[in-house]
Amino acid sequence: MLPGGTVGLIGGGQLGRMFAIAARRMGYRVHTFEPSPDSPAGQISDKEIAAPYDDLEKLEEFARGVDVITFEFENIPSASLERVARVCPVRPRPGVLHICQNRAREKEFLGRHGFPVAAHRTVESAAEAAAEAAAMGFPCVMKTADFGYDGRGQSKIGSAVDASEAWAALDAPRAVLEEWVDFRCELSVVCARDESGRVECFPPSENLHRNHILHRSVVPARIDPSVAREAELLAVRIARALDVVGVLAVEFFVRRDGTLLVNELAPRPHNSGHFSFDACATSQFEQQLRSVCGLPLGSPRLMSPVVMVNLLGDAWQNGEPDWPALLSDPDVKLHLYGKSEVRAGRKMGHFCVLKPTGQEAVEAADEAVARLFGRAEPADRA
Ligand code: AMP
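YS: structure for the whole thing
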């Protein structure tokens, strides 16, 4: 599908917004399907259809108006995606989303293909949760199987009582109980796979989370090059095993001995790949566009060391943040997502700091955080 064509985007969040910016830059039209009007992606699109994800009639109408469909949001009912796939090509294929939108299925897929994952069990009742948590040992982590993201539906379990309480709070038919991983750091690799099966990886990013939400990414990651190579190799093999055409993000834990465990997959651009918008020859959003439109992939080459810092709603607690103070460093690039409603924990934007060396980028990001929030960054590592 060549420039001038229309891409259909399901989901209207910030990932879609940055996708739409990339698509419009290359001369495509974008139609967005998203339940709430005036969405971050809708603001950039040629057309925004505001309807629930299970409105099959509206989805079909949307599908008839576009040449190819992709998505930026994982919690779309798979029945909806199957339905639009009858009208218009969907990339990645709906089966990929079906696996990745459920932690139990995702872990089963990874295990079946021999990829390294943390020890885990699927549990379906409070009693089972308590018994399996005791058998696994404390601490461990309970996560909802479906519809979890950004730490939602996730809790650390310190006792059998915690396990029953966490089960009740999840209010879901199924959960995954996972061993606690004592990691040295977290990494992710975003890659893109085209129709011919070629895969290109962005350099791994080193990710620091706060309250289970990504806080910042450092690229290049401060890890042994052999660990970076291994992470890229695993990402490529997972993309092939899943038969993804599009973008795939693979999150890893790096254990203290340097070995890797796959934590999560996302068959779409990922927060930890936002650095690519400012720091790579081709961004993850342009790779998504190129791969779903059947164009050759671009170069994911890193042009500059970079640190990406997320801006959550919390940054607005004393009113509008001091943007001129943030931007007083000319190497800071600000991205805001056009969300009018501010909520604590809501991803409102991010910034990237580009510097000649990784060390300088980390220091400049710390200074930028201090200018914006008037506080120092906590130490990066345990
Ligand atoms: P997830 O939603 O699975 O990506 O989890 C969000 C974050 O919670 C991860 O990036 C980790 O920082 C933390 N986390 C999740 N699972 C575990 C685990 N099994 N052991 C230690 N930390 C975890």
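YS: worth flagging: The chain has a mean pLDDT of 95.
IM: good catch. Also The first helix runs from residue 14 to 25.
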